[in-house]
């Protein structure tokens, strides 16, 4: 009578009967992979920053004394940033048009990026343009008088073809070297105008504050008589030099017109005819 076959002594139990079958291991591995992939995409969905598309349609137009840039809007963008050359931020805001009033003369490159919170899009394709001479950072001040003053240093004004140049801002009585210099600059920008059909030189002074303007006005009042002109009050001295405040426009309250070497009886007629 045949005996039942038995395994040799010392044979491991695992060899006798597998506890985990191969297909079970494959199922567990697949489940672990699915959980890992799902967790990755869940975390990414919670932490991902959606970057707007780069703006398109950037155009730049170098007009008289300033540059105007426009571009197409980007869906989902909350704002835009226009950059000149290697990082000069010209504009940052919600509009799709910006003015660079302080662009210096020369060749320049502009790019614009879309913003959405902290997310910044790639920059647009660059646009290059050549600009002529401008008043630089003081161009917005000159732009307050579009008819009276030339909007670029190398052109003439509409009024009497006046030609103007920039003068150093600080006068002798402000910073020296005169004995009365107080070491403080009161005026921030000055243009002197003449030539063309202008037979009386004049200038426009912009002051750092109302106190600075009033200090200059008070200094002139010691040797001058008060007068009233079309846009405010003024002073005229015995040599025909006049200084005139502009008081009817808050945007220009820090500007003052100075007329030089003008007969006293004619200076009011001149300033009243100025297109300001």
Automatic annotation (TrEMBL):
Gene3D superfamilies: Immunoglobulins (2.60.40.10). The chain crosses the membrane at residues 20-41. Keywords: Carbohydrate metabolism, Glycosidase, Hydrolase, Membrane, Polysaccharide degradation, Transmembrane, Transmembrane helix. It comes from the Bacteria. This is Fibronectin type III domain-containing protein.
């Amino acid at each position: 009578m045949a005996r039942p076959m038995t395994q040799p002594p010392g044979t491991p139990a695992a060899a006798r009967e597998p506890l985990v079958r191969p297909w079970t291991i494959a199922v567990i591995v697949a489940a672990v992979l699915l959980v890992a992939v799902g967790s990755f995409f869940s975390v990414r969905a919670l932490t991902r920053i959606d970057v707007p598309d780069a703006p398109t349609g950037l155009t730049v137009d170098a007009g008289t004394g300033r540059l105007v840039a426009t571009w197409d809007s980007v869906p989902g963008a909350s704002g835009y940033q226009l950059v000149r050359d290697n990082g000069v931020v010209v504009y940052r805001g919600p509009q799709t048009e910006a003015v660079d009033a302080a662009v210096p003369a020369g060749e320049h490159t502009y790019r614009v990026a879309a913003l959405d919170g902290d997310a910044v899009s790639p920059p647009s394709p660059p646009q290059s343009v050549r600009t002529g001479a401008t008043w630089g950072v003081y161009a917005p001040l000159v732009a307050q008088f579009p008819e009276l003053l030339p909007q670029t240093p190398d052109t003439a004004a509409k009024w009497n073809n006046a030609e103007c140049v920039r003068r150093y801002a600080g006068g002798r009585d402000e910073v020296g070297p005169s004995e009365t210099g107080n070491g403080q600059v009161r005026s921030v920008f000055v243009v002197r105008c003449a030539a063309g059909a202008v037979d009386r030189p004049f200038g426009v002074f912009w002051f750092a504050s109302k106190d600075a303007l009033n200090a200059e006005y008070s200094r002139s009042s010691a040797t001058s008589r008060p007068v009233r002109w079309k846009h405010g009050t003024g002073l005229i001295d015995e040599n025909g030099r006049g200084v005139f405040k502009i008081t009817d426009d808050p945007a220009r309250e820090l500007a003052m017109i100075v007329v030089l070497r003008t007969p006293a009886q004619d200076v009011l007629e001149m300033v009243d005819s100025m297109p300001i």
